[in-house]
Amino acid sequence: MGGGRDAMALFTSRGPVAEVFRFGLVPIACRARNEDRSQVALSLNNNEVNIYGRAASEWKLQETLQGHDLRVTGIDWAPSTNRIVTCGAVSLLCIYLTFSCG
To answer: Per the record, what is one GO cellular component (predicted)?
Structure first.
């Protein structure tokens, strides 16, 4: 497609088989998963964080978090508080209270 490469994420399961998913044509700069691995937060090399939820065999976009002026460079998802922390290219730190899906 247009000479670009798909943004891919390789998620290892608790078993012997890894799963590969595609989230678009731009590189994934950073990503994190929630504790039960039912959601993933990722940044596609821009200033947004997209949260995807697992729906059967594919990932569906649930929410887009904004707060950075420049590119997001790191994401972490705290398992005990279910908060997402991101840092950006100019050392800006954002903390998001996550939502409940379902």
So the answer is: Arp2/3 protein complex
d(CA 82, CA 99): 9
* Span between the terminal Cα atoms of the chain, in Å: 34
Residue 72 has pLDDT above 50, yes or no: yes
Instruction: Look up residue 100 and give its DSSP letter.
Output: -
Give me 45's structure tokens. 């090399």
Rounded distance between C-alpha atoms, residue 46 and residue 26, angstroms: 10
Q: What are phi and psi of 42, to 5 degrees?
A: -145, 155
pLDDT band at residue 77 using 50, 70 and 90 as cut-offs: very high
CATH of the domain at 52: 2.40.10
| Residue 3: inside a domain | no
Distances in Å between the alpha carbon of 56 and those of 35, 47, 59, 65, 93? Answer: 18, 28, 8, 24, 33
